[in-house]
C-alpha cells in the first residue's frame, strides 16, 4: 500500500481528462438501475434464480461443454475449445485468413475477443478487422482501450468523437451532433459490413441443450454482422454455458436493468447457428435475396478456457465465473465513477469484478495493479444480479498479493509489534499500520494527549506519510485519554438495573468509539438507558475490519474468533449486541460468514443490531420516544432546529440498516434529508492513503454538491465518513445517536 | 391472450416510441399501407395480405433501396413490448434489419404476458427446429455518440400492426380501447 507516485499521478491525470465523462455516464447508469429494477415485482427472486442457474452450470461445466459440442455439430456447426488465447487465435486466424481467404472480418462487441486480442492476431495475418459497435469503432479509430465493459467509449465526449471523425475522414460537412455522428458511423460501417467475408460475435449466454446463443445488443450491428456474412465465428468463455434455453429468461430480465438501466435492450438475439437467413449478395445485388444461400452458411463456436477451468477449481475465485458482465459493479462503485476502467481495470476487464477475472486470466500481478481501488464499501453487492460477493474476491486477491509479494524494503524491527503473527513478515508498513489499527489506537489512547500532539507535528506527519502512506492532509483521529469502557466502569456500570430493564444488551466497544469518539458511545448509553435497556460494556476485541480491508484475512479471522469468544456468553445469556460503528456491524452480519463456523456466524449475526436500528425497534415495541431528544428540546449542538442532513454509511446501506436512523429521527420530528451518495469515498482507511487522497475527495464531491451550503445539522454514522464530511463540508458531523440521545 | 396483456403491450410500445395500429386480418393490407414508407419490401404473410406497394421476394438491391421492411412476428411479449422476429429462408431477418422502418405484423393470439413464457415458447423450437429469433424491443438505438440516437445500424422506427383474432370477443376489444 505504501505510496506509488506513478500510480497516483496516473489516477490524477485520468480524473482530469476522463473523470467527468465517466462520472456522468456511470452515475446515470446507476440511477437507471435503481429505477429499472424498482419496476420489477420479483427482482430479488429473479436474482436468486439467476444465481442458482449459474451455480448449477459452473458445477456441471465439463458436461455442458460435451453437450454443446453435440448440439452445435448436429445443427451443422463446429465447436473448438481453446486452451488459451494463442490457441483460440490460431484457430480463428487459420479459419479466416487461410481457409476462407478473407479480406475483412466484421465484429460485434465482445470482451472475450478483447481478452484474447484476436484483432491483433488477425491483423498480423493480413485480415482487416472492423469493430461495428459504434463505441468500439470509435476506440479502434482512436487506438484506445475500452474504459467500461458495456459502454466502452464512455470516457470520450461527443466533442472528442467529432474531432476524431473530422481528423480521420476529413468529411466535407463534419458531423457534430450525436445524431449526425451516429448517421455518419452507420453509413461508413454499413459499407464495410457489405464487403465483409467473416462475422465475429461474442455470446452472452449459450444453451447447451440446443446450441442456441444469446446476444444482448441495442444497435443492430451484431444482427448485421451475422446476417451479412456466410461465416460466423462466435468467441465465448466456457462460463457462458447454461443448461437450457429456458434458463435465458431471468438473465434477459436482469442484464439490461443491472447494467445501463434499460428494462431490456433493443435486440435480444437468440441464434441457433448456422442461421436460417439467406446471405445478401451485395455485389450481384440484382439477384433475389432469397436465393437459398442459407445452406452455405458456416458456424464456428470457439469456447475459451484461458484460465477459467482453474478458476472453477479455486474455491474463492470460482464465483467470478457467475459474472454476466453487466457492469453493475462498475456503475455502483464510487471510485469507478471517478476514474473509469482505464485506472480501475486490468488487461481487459474493469470495475470491481475485474480483480477476479484478471487474477484468474492474467495472474495476480495484473490484478494487484488496481485491486487497491476496491475499498470494500460493498455497494456493488446488492447491485450484482447474480449475487457475487465482489468485495470478498477483492479481499482474497489482496491477501494473496500480500503473501506473494514479499518485499523487505522497510526496516521492520521498529514496527514488529504491529505485525500480527498470522501475516507474512515483509508486509509493507502502510498495510500494517491500518491493518493493526486497534493496537495503534490502544497505544495512542494510553499516551493521549501526548500522542495526539506528536501526531499533528508537521515533520512527524511527513515522516508518517513517507513510511505508512497516510496523507498529511488528513486529520488523524485524536485518541481519548479515557476509553468508553473505562468511563462506563467509572460511573458504576449500568444505570438501569437488570430487574427493571425492558431488554438487556451489551454495547460493543468498537475501536473507533472506545478509543477515539467516546462521546458517541456515551450518547448511545444515554439513549439506550432512557428506553430502559440494561447495558454492559465488556472488554471485547476489535472486529477485524481494518486488517480485512488490507487483505489480512488470517488476522481478521483471529479477531473474529476473539470477538465471538468475547460475546457468545452474552448472546447465550439473552443479551442483544448493539453496535455503533456500521463497518463493524457489517463484519458481524456479513463478512464473519467467511471467517467463522456457520453456526457461530449465525448466532452472532442474529443477535447484533445497529444502535439506531435497535432504538427503532425499542420504539416500535412500545418504547416512549419522548425519552429521546426531540428537536424542540434542541439547544446546544443542535443549533439549526429540526433540519437534519444524514449520510448513511455505505456498508450500513448494504446490510439494510441505513434507514433506521432516518425513521427514528423522523419519528422524533426531525426533517431529514438523506445523502444520495452511496459511499463518501473515505471507505475506512482508503481516503487516508496519500495515493488516493484526491480520488477519495472526488468520490465525495457529490455530497458537497448536495449538502455543501446546507444549514442543516449534518449527521453520519461512520467514523471515517465523519472525517470525510468534515473535509468536504468544513465541519465534523455527529452520529445520529448523539442527536437523539437525551442530554447528560 | 388476455385483455391485460394487450393493454400492457400497447402501453409498453407507446413508451418505446413504437406506433401501433389494430384491426382484423382483413384490414391488414390497409394498415400496413398506412404505416409503410416507400419503397417497401416484405415477406408474404401466412394468413393476411400485404398491400401492393410492398415488394415480396426482393433483390438485394431492392432491400438496399428500401425505406420500409414488412415482416411477421412470431410472438409478442407484453411486459416488454417486444416482438419476436424469426429468421427464415425468405429473408425476414435482413428485411426487418437493413431498412429505416420496420413494420411488423403480430396476431393478438401470439401475445404472451412475460419473458418466462416467451422462453418456454422458444425452448422446444430451438431444440427441435434450430430457430433463430430476435426479440426486438423498439428501434435500433445507441448512446455511444454522446446522446441517445435511434437507428444506429438497424431501423430508426418501428410500427406494429396488431391483428385481432377472428373469434375475438368484440365486446372485450371495445372495452379495452
Provide keyphrases for this structure.
heterodimer; A: 744 residues; Rossmann fold; 17 strands; 48% helix; 10% strand; B: 177 residues; alpha/beta; 12 strands
Describe what this molecule looks like in 3D:
The complex is a heterodimer of chains A (744) and B (177). In chain A, 48% of the residues lie in helices and 10% in strands. The two termini of chain A are 43 Å apart. Chain B has one domain (3-166): Rossmann fold. Chain B is built from six helices and twelve strands. Chain B has a six-stranded parallel β-sheet, with helices on both faces. A four-stranded mixed β-sheet of chain B has the order 8-5-6-9. The relative contact order of chain B is 0.22. Chains A and B meet through α8, α9, α10, α11 and α12 of A and α3, α4, α5, β9 and β10 of B. β9 (267-271) of chain A pairs antiparallel with β9 (133-136) of chain B, so a sheet runs across the interface.
Question: How would you summarize what this structure contains?
Answer:
The complex is a heterodimer of chains A (744) and B (177). Chain A is of the alpha/beta class.
Amino acid at each position: 500500500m505504501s505510496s506509488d507516485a506513478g500510480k497516483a499521478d496516473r489516477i490524477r491525470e485520468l480524473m482530469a481528462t476522463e473523470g467527468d465523462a465517466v462520472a456522468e455516464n456511470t452515475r446515470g447508469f446507476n440511477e437507471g438501475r435503481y429505477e429499472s429494477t424498482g419496476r420489477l415485482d420479483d427482482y430479488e427472486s429473479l436474482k436468486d434464480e439467476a444465481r442458482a442457474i449459474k451455480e448449477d452450470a459452473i458445477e456441471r461445466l465439463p458436461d455442458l461443454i460435451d453437450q454443446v459440442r453435440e448440439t452445435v455439430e448436429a445443427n451443422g456447426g463446429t465447436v473448438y475449445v481453446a486452451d488459451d488465447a494463442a490457441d483460440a487465435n490460431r484457430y480463428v486466424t487459420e479459419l479466416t485468413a487461410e481457409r476462407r481467404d478473407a479480406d475483412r472480418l466484421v465484429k460485434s462487441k465482445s470482451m472475450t475477443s478483447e481478452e484474447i486480442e484476436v484483432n491483433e492476431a488477425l491483423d498480423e495475418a493480413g485480415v482487416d478487422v472492423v469493430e461495428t459497435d459504434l463505441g468500439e469503432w470509435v476506440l479502434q479509430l482512436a487506438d484506445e482501450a475500452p474504459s467500461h465493459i458495456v459502454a466502452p467509449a464512455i470516457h470520450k465526449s461527443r466533442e472528442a468523437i467529432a474531432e476524431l471523425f473530422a481528423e480521420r475522414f476529413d468529411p466535407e460537412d463534419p458531423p457534430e451532433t450525436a445524431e449526425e455522428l451516429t448517421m455518419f458511423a452507420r453509413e461508413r460501417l454499413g459499407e464495410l459490413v457489405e464487403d465483409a467475408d467473416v462475422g465475429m460475435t461474442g455470446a452472452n449466454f449459450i444453451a447447451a441443450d440446443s446450441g442456441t446463443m444469446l446476444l444482448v445488443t441495442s444497435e443492430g450491428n451484431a444482427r448485421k454482422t451475422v446476417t451479412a456474412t456466410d461465416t460466423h465465428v462466435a468467441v465465448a468463455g466456457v462460463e457462458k454455458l447454461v443448461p437450457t434455453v429456458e434458463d435465458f429468461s431471468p438473465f434477459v430480465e436482469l442484464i439490461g436493468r443491472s447494467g445501463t438501466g434499460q428494462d431490456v435492450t433493443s435486440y435480444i438475439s437468440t441464434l441457433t447457428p448456422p442461421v436460417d437467413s439467406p446471405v445478401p449478395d451485395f455485389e450481384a445485388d440484382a439477384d433475389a435475396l432469397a436465393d437459398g444461400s442459407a445452406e452455405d452458411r458456416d458456424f464456428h463456436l470457439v469456447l475459451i478456457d484461458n484460465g477459467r477451468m482453474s478458476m472453477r477449481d479455486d474455491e474463492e475465485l470460482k464465483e467470478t465465473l457467475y459474472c454476466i458482465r453487466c457492469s453493475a459493479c462498475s456503475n455502483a462503485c464510487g471510485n469507478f465513477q471517478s476514474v473509469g476502467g482505464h485506472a480501475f481495470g486490468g488487461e481487459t476487464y474493469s470495475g470491481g469484478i475485474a480483480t477476479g477475472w484478471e487474477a484468474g486470466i492474467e495472474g495476480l500481478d495484473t490484478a494487484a495493479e488496481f485491486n487497491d481501488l476496491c475499498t470494500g464499501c460493498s455497494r456493488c453487492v446488492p447491485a450484482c444480479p447474480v449475487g457475487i460477493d465482489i468485495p470478498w474476491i477483492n479481499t482474497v486477491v489482496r491477501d494473496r498479493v500480500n503473501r506473494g509479494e514479499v518485499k523487505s524494503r522497510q526496516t521492520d524491527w521498529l514496527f514488529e509489534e504491529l505485525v500480527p503473527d498470522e501475516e507474512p513478515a515483509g508486509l509493507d508498513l502502510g498495510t500494517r499500520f491500518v491493518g493493526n489499527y486497534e493496537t495503534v489506537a490502544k497505544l495512542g489512547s494510553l499516551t493521549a494527549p501526548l500522542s495526539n500532539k506528536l501526531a499533528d507535528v508537521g515533520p512527524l506527519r511527513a515522516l508518517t506519510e513517507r513510511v505508512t502512506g497516510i496523507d498529511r492532509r488528513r486529520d488523524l483521529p485524536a485518541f481519548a485519554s479515557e476509553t468508553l469502557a473505562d468511563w462506563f466502569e467509572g460511573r458504576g456500570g449500568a444505570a438501569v438495573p437488570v430487574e427493571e430493564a425492558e431488554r438487556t444488551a451489551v454495547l460493543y466497544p468498537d475501536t473507533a468509539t472506545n478509543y477515539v469518539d467516546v462521546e458517541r458511545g456515551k450518547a448511545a448509553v444515554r439513549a439506550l438507558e432512557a428506553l430502559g435497556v440494561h447495558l454492559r460494556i465488556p472488554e471485547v476485541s476489535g472486529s477485524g475490519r481494518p486488517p480485512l480491508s488490507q487483505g489480512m484475512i488470517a488476522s481478521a479471522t483471529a479477531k473474529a474468533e476473539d470477538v465471538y469468544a468475547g460475546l457468545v456468553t452474552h448472546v447465550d445469556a439473552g443479551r442483544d449486541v448493539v453496535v455503533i460503528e456500521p463497518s463493524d456491524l457489517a463484519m458481524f452480519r456479513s463478512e464473519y460468514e467467511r471467517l467463522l463456523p456457520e453456526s457461530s456466524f449465525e448466532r452472532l449475526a442474529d443477535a447484533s443490531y445497529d444502535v439506531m436500528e435497535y432504538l427503532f425497534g425499542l420504539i416500535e415495541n412500545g418504547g416512549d420516544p419522548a425519552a429521546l431528544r426531540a428537536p424542540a428540546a434542541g439547544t446546544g449542538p443542535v443549533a439549526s432546529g429540526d433540519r437534519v442532513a444524514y449520510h448513511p454509511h455505505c456498508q450500513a446501506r448494504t446490510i439494510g440498516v441505513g434507514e433506521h436512523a432516518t425513521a427514528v429521527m423522523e419519528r422524533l420530528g426531525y426533517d431529514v434529508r438523506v445523502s444520495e451518495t452511496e459511499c463518501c469515498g473515505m471507505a475506512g482507511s482508503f481516503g487516508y492513503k496519500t495515493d488516493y487522497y484526491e480520488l477519495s475527495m472526488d468520490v465525495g464531491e457529490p455530497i458537497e454538491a448536495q449538502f455543501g451550503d446546507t444549514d442543516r445539522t449534518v449527521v453520519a454514522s461512520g467514523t471515517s465518513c465523519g472525517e470525510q464530511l468534515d473535509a468536504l463540508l468544513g465541519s465534523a458531523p455527529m452520529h445520529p445517536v448523539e442527536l437523539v440521545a437525551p442530554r447528560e | 391472450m388476455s385483455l391485460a396483456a394487450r393493454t400492457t403491450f400497447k402501453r409498453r410500445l407507446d413508451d418505446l416510441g413504437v406506433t401501433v395500429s389494430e384491426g382484423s386480418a382483413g384490414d391488414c393490407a390497409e394498415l400496413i399501407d398506412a404505416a409503410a414508407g416507400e419503397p417497401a419490401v416484405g415477406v408474404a404473410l401466412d394468413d393476411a395480405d400485404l398491400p401492393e406497394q410492398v415488394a415480396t421476394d426482393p433483390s438485394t438491391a431492392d432491400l438496399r433501396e428500401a425505406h420500409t421492411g414488412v415482416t411477421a412476428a412470431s410472438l409478442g411479449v407484453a411486459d416488454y413490448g417486444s416482438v419476436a422476429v424469426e429468421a427464415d429462408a425468405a429473408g425476414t431477418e435482413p428485411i426487418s434489419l437493413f431498412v429505416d422502418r420496420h413494420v411488423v405484423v403480430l396476431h393478438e393470439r401470439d401475445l404472451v404476458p412475460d419473458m418466462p413464457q416467451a422462453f418456454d415458447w422458444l425452448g422446444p423450437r430451438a431444440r427441435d427446429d434450430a430457430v433463430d429469433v430476435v426479440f426486438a424491443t423498439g428501434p435500433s438505438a445507441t448512446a455511444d455518440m454522446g446522446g441517445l440516437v435511434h437507428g444506429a445500424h438497424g431501423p430508426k422506427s418501428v410500427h406494429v400492426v396488431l391483428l385481432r383474432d377472428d373469434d375475438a370477443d368484440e365486446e372485450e376489444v371495445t372495452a379495452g380501447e
